[in-house]
Amino acid sequence: MSYQRDFPRRLNVALIGAGSHAYRNLLPALTFLPVTLRAVCDLDAARAEATARQYGAVPYTDTRELYARERLDAVLLCVGPGQHPALAMDAFAAGLHVWLEKPPAFRAAEVADMLAARGDRVAVVGFKKAFMPATDKALEFARDFGPLRSLLAVYPMSIPTDGATVLREQHFTNWLGNGCHPLSFLLAVGGPVVAVTVHRGARGGGACVLEHRDGAVSTLHLADGGNGTQPLERYTLFGENAHLEIENAGRVTLQRGIPFDYGVTTTYAPPGTDSGAVVWEAQNMLGTLENMALFTQGMYAELRHFCDSVLEGRPATRGTLEFALHVMHVYEAALLSEGGRVEVDETTDFTDLHRV
Predict the structure, then answer these.
(1) Do 138 and 246 meet the contact criterion of CB atoms below 8 Å apart?
(2) Rounded CA gap, 21 and 84, in Å?
(3) Distance between CA 71 and CA 38 in Å, rounded?
(4) Which segments in the chain show pLDDT lower than 70?
(5) CB contact at 8 A, 328 and 135
(6) Alpha carbon of 115 to those of 64, 74, 246: distances in Å?
(7) Torsion over CA of 344, 348, 351 and 353, rounded to 10 degrees?
(8) Number of H helices, E strands in the chain
(9) Residue 28, preceding bond cis, omega within 30 degrees?
(10) Under 8 Å CB-to-CB from 90, ≥6 apart: which residues?
(11) pLDDT, tens only, 306-348
């Protein structure tokens, strides 16, 4: 692990959008990344000035002036889905690499526009759940105990009714703002999706069923009504003679089972260590890194992948615009399902990009 001050090579970056999320998450993460923050740009001049002063950067309120005056390698966009596409394409046109926060846009077509404008630049979208340490362990599980049979996700949300209106009028709903979290995990681990079916309960909640191209099925339980301020995020992967459980990004359990003979076995803890459960869990005894949300939730990993890809002159392989486009196609299909099976546009393939 290196800190910003340790890196011999750094990217010159600008932060565009200095709101609460950027201040709480992006700026603290820079301490651990090979970057130098040259500028902060925000429509709120006072906020841009105060933030830039704190980090020894130059404040701006206009990206055109920013690009004309500063020598940058990349920008970090943290505004909103309505502004991300235009800002990303302007940055690409200026020859800059782009990291942008989720959700990348309101519609899949806007992500396709960004993809067409990207050229040879690196672009990574901040789908943090696709970058969690727990996700890396899930990908190991899929490799070692695969092929996956099914996946289960539990997340506190619902999917709006009248999805056509939501899409047409570009409403910002929880399904857009936070639904991309479980969706990005399920797509990163389960692979591309060919069809989506949503069943809603009369009292809220329901289930979003994803049919993966390789034959696995994911069920996203829409735990509407659950207390979102308490731990309520679960993932379970079912492979060959084992399953993996992920609880709230900080605990991973591999369930290997025990030697068992129905009506005969008398102990749940037989001798040896080659059966039973294996648990990985962030510890909170020391003031260390692996228990910090920046690391457990994947924020550091997504930004580090972006920085390393730029510095090493190679395309990104995770959180790409191809991946984002597929996430958005699944998002849209779920809005349009209304209990029916909706096939997902597969014109853009990210199969070779999401594995570690």
Answers:
(1) yes
(2) 15
(3) 9
(4) 346-356
(5) no
(6) 21, 17, 32
(7) -130
(8) 13, 15
(9) no
(10) 63, 67
(11) 999 999 999 999 999 999 999 999 999 999 999 999 999 766 5
